[in-house]
């Protein structure tokens, strides 16, 4: 018989499943198939009636291409949705987009000009809507390319007419519950946006500013002297000293704040007398260059209340007032107080009924009424204020300081605090702050430090300024009395009437509305508020405008919100505030946050550094599944490091998983589970162990998915493929698979195990390696549904019987022996004793425990260690030293027998052309019998 004939007697592995993934080329065709065959709708159909799990999509902003952070976010959501489906939940995914607001306005302004200049406001809004729609379509294609499944044909857009109407309804509910008020308060104001900013739209960057110490001369020195219990009177002019880095705010100064509990001293500095906090005298002296001083007297802050001091360059006096916000962390312990330009200043001034100066306009310039500085921009005015202070002798010291300063997140330019008439959601009026803090405790925060973070933010956050002076946004749908400025008494009803109009015609309905249509004869006394809502109100109200409104969610609340860690003060915060204000409860049960992406050296992505990794480039080079595997294998609770090198490592891991799947499929060639499946009681011991191994792995993988620990899923998957299967089980079974009779129990038992393992493995992979799992699914034998994504985790796995003779502990001990054998064989190969393992004959000298273990396998031990012969002898007879495993000494000799041309084992063949007795039995007889391996 020729060698070719022998080859034809073997059951060689065969599959059409390609060795190479070629993901970048193949994935688009798979996507087309998913959408042509309405995969998402089929998942919904198969999940009908199951317990629901709702992950509510935080809407990305509809502007620009998606970046790697977007990809991370959407992939994590998709993994959760798919794994929840596999865990037996009905888990719909409705993607969304944030569509109103300033970034879109600025883009459209650049294209068509500002509203009410070249184009009407109504036309401008339509252009904004058109631009947002284009941006949504572009981003949608990229999100779909990532393999993210969802209702992409019916996403929620905050600019959809029904969503706009529901945002207005959420606003109406907050009004009805008494949370809204109008006030002139300092708010973050961007000079470039010409609008107020939300807390989440502010970021802090370093900025160089003037650092100045300024004298405020006492209006009545004798009144001050009396209160300081002077030990000596001292000489020279008497002044209070403040420190500031914003000279431009001095024209708006209305008071000086002291801490009631601090001790203040009147000190002689050269030829003048200054009031400073006792704890800061030394640091101020050093800053202004005074080497020695005399303390003339001291007094507690509370005793100095309402003392009067002259404004440095205006003809009025300002009082000492008391506030707990004054500290000794820096400065002088006396705080320049301009209620227009600081939250603490505003709060403390209100207690004393001190009004605002209102000297700065919407454009960030001083009004025409501002003496000395009219028409100057605030930052431009800094220099002029310094000149004025110098001129009047009020400037004690000028330096430059580099410090952290608030900037606009869009323009990256410094912003100011500025008092403007705005609409606010009050944190205290109806106990909103306390209720929100209480609700936070009912939420599961992942990672758990998220709870303390948002608690601190809620504790310290100011009232929420919800109004904006913009064109493209949901209207603040209120009617205000022209004289009293009070809301219309039927405000809540009117808001609902407006919502109905907006539902039909969009937000333009508000601006087109003639007040007479709703107010009748009263219309003459009322005006429509021209402001729009903060865009964080839009997205913050989606728990109501989307989750409560979409039929897919069946009226259930969201189980999870998942976004980047910057959203504690963004979407998580606005959603919590609004849901608590309208429904008295948190809008979510769990909140999961992920870190930001950084490059291989831990640096932020930056065009200037040239280290930006785009998801589009990754998919073109590696494919979507490699990107998904990187996301899943990275611990998202910290910074997520990505680089070409890291992605190559992910590709290597992917290849190991793919090769395992290919081996399984190739060895299931010719297997029909209906015809060939072997019952567990008839299976060979090692095959039972392999299924048990998959059973244990699945329990761990399901638990990891359930706890959103995707890196643990990947680690367990890799261990299963590389260690338990690749380097042990799959290695051992090759001989049995290839050489025994095609329909023998020995082979069918093995194929049964491989089929169970493949059925489980493809489902474990599906939430992460979605494209590859779909590909594998098409090659698996047996009847099955069209897509793996409609399936739950495999329930056909089984554990070893509790009383199994060769249980998991047994095979773990065998694995120890096999690893030691492999080490010794490797050494023998290096020493040129043998070429391959099948040339070896082993003598395993073993202690009693190992002897009993190995002798149970009888003649099949050689198949486990993959040598042509393996016999066990007592350790006492060893003529070689013990190796790395105590109780084992292993001797290797090259076999003197002929190599069987069919199975390549060295045994009892008559010559190199003759079959060994085992192959003779497998080819021409009834086939060999295996019990263990």
Radius of gyration: 38 Å
- By secondary-structure content and strand pairing, the structural class works out as alpha/beta
Strand order of the largest sheet: 11-9-10-7-6-15
Low-confidence stretches: none
Shape: elongated
Helix content: 40-55%
Largest sheet, described in full? 6 strands, mixed
At the first level of CATH, the class of the domain at 208-402 is Alpha Beta
How many E-type strands?
A: 31
For this structure, the CATH topology of the domain at 208-402 is Isoleucyl-tRNA Synthetase, domain 2
Examine the secondary-structure arrangement and name the CATH architecture of the domain at 208-402.
Alpha-Beta Complex
Terminal residue distance: 29 Å
In terms of DSSP E residues, the strand content is: 15-25%
CATH homologous superfamily descriptor of the domain at 208-402: Valyl/Leucyl/Isoleucyl-tRNA synthetase, editing domain
Give me the number of helical elements.
31
Instruction: Give the overall pLDDT as a whole number.
Output: 94
Binding site for L-isoleucyl-5'-AMP: 563
Motif ('HIGH' region): 60-70
Catalytic activity: tRNA(Ile) + L-isoleucine + ATP = L-isoleucyl-tRNA(Ile) + AMP + diphosphate
InterPro entries: aa-tRNA-synth_I_CS, aa-tRNA-synth_Ia, Anticodon_Ile_BEm, Ile-tRNA-ligase, Ile-tRNA-ligase_type1, Ile-tRNA_ligase, M/V/L/I-tRNA-synth_anticd-bd, Rossmann-like_a/b/a_fold
């Amino acid at each position: 018989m020729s060698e070719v004939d022998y080859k034809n007697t073997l059951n060689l592995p065969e599959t059409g499943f390609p060795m190479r993934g070629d993901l970048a080329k193949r994935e688009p065709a798979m996507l087309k198939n998913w959408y042509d065959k309405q995969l998402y709708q089929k998942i919904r159909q198969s999940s009908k009636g199951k317990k629901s799990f709702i992950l509510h999509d935080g809407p990305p902003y509809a502007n620009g291409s998606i970046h790697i952070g977007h990809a991370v976010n959407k992939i994590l959501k998709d993994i959760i949705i798919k794994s929840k489906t596999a865990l037996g939940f009905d888990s719909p995914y409705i993607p969304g987009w944030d569509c109103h607001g300033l970034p879109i306005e600025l883009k459209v302004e650049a294209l068509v000009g500002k509203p009410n200049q070249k184009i009407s406001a109504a036309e401008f809004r339509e252009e904004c809507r058109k631009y947002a729609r284009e941006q949504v379509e572009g981003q949608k294609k990229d999100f779909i390319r990532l393999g993210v499944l969802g209702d992409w044909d019916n996403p929620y857009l905050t600019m959809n007419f029904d969503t706009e109407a529901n945002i207005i309804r959420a606003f109406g509910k907050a009004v009805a519950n008494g949370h809204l008020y109008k006030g002139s308060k300092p708010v973050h104001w961007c000079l470039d946006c010409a609008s107020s900013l939300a807390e989440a739209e502010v970021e802090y960057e370093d900025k160089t500013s003037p650092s100045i110490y300024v004298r405020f001369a006492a209006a009545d020195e004798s009144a001050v002297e009396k209160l300081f219990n002077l030990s000596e009177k001292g000489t020279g002019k008497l002044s209070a000293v403040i420190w500031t880095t914003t000279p431009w705010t001095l024209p708006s100064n209305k008071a000086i704040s002291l801490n009631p509990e601090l001790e203040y001293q009147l000190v002689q500095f050269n030829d003048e007398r200054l009031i400073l906090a006792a704890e800061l005298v030394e640091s101020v002296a050093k800053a202004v260059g005074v080497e020695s001083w005399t303390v003339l007297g001291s007094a507690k802050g509370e005793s100095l209340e309402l003392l009067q001091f002259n404004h440095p360059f205006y003809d009025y006096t300002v009082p000492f007032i008391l506030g707990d916000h004054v500290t000794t962390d820096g400065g002088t312990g006396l705080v320049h107080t301009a209620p227009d330009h600081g939250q603490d200043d505003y709060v403390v001034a209100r207690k004393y009924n001190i009004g605002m100066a209102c000297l700065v306009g919407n454009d960030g310039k001083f009004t025409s009424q501002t003496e000395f500085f009219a028409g100057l921009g605030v930052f431009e005015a800094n220099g002029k204020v310094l000149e004025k202070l110098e001129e009047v002798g009020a400037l004690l010291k000028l330096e430059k300081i580099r410090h952290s300063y608030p900037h606009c997140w869009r323009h990256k330019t410094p912003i100011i605090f500025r008092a403007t008439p705005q609409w606010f959601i009050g944190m205290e009026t109806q106990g909103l702050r306390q209720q929100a803090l209480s609700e936070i405790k009912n939420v599961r925060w992942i990672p758990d430090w998220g709870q303390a973070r948002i608690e601190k933010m809620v504790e310290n956050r100011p009232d929420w300024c919800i109004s904006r002076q913009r064109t493209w946004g949901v209207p603040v749908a209120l009617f205000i009395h022209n004289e009293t400025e009070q809301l219309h008494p039927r405000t809540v009803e009117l808001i609902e009437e407006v919502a109905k109009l907006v539902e039909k015609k969009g937000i333009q309905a508000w601006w087109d509305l003639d007040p007479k249509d709703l107010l009748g004869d009263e219309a003459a006394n009322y005006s429509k508020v021209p402001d729009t809502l903060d865009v964080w109100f839009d997205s913050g109200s989606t728990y109501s405008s989307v989750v409560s409104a979409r039929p897919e969610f069946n009226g259930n609340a969201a189980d999870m919100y998942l976004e980047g860690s910057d959203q504690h003060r963004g979407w998580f915060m606005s959603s919590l505030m609004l849901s608590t204000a309208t429904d008295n409860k948190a809008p979510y049960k769990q909140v999961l946050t992920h870190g930001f992406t950084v490059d291989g050296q831990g640096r932020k992505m930056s065009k200037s550094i040239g280290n930006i990794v785009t998801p589009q480039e990754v998919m073109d080079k590696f494919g979507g599944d490699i990107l998904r595997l990187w996301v899943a294998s990275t611990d998202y609770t910290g910074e997520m490091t990505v680089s070409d090198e890291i992605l190559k490592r992910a590709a290597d891991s992917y290849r190991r998983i793919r090769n395992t799947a290919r081996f399984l499929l190739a060895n299931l060639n010719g297997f029909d589970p209906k015809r060939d499946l072997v019952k567990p009681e008839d299976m060979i011991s090692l095959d039972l162990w392999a299924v048990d191994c998959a059973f244990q792995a699945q329990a761990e993988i399901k638990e990891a998915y359930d706890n959103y620990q995707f890196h643990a899923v990947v680690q367990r998957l890799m261990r299963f493929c590389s260690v338990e299967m690749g380097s042990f089980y799959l290695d051992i079974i090759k001989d049995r698979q290839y050489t025994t009779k095609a329909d023998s129990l020995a082979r069918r038992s093995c194929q049964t195990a491989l089929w169970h393992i493949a059925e489980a493995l493809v489902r474990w992979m599906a939430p992460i390696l979605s494209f590859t799992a779909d590909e594998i699914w098409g090659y698996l034998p047996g009847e099955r549904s069209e897509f793996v994504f409609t399936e739950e985790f495999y329930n056909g796995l089984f554990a070893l019987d509790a009383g199994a003779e060769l249980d998991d502990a047994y095979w773990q001990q065998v694995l120890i022996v096999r690893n030691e054998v492999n080490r010794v064989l490797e050494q023998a190969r290096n020493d040129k004793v043998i070429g391959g393992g099948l040339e070896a004959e082993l003598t395993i000298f073993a202690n009693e425990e190992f002897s009993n273990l190995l002798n149970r396998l009888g003649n099949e031990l050689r198949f486990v260690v993959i040598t042509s012969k393996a016999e066990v002898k007592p350790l006492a007879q060893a003529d070689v030293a013990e190796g790395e495993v105590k109780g084992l000494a292993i001797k290797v000799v090259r076999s003197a027998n002929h190599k069987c041309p069919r199975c390549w084992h060295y045994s009892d063949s008559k010559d190199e052309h003759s079959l060994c007795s085992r192959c003779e039995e497998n080819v021409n007889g009834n086939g060999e019998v295996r019990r263990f391996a």
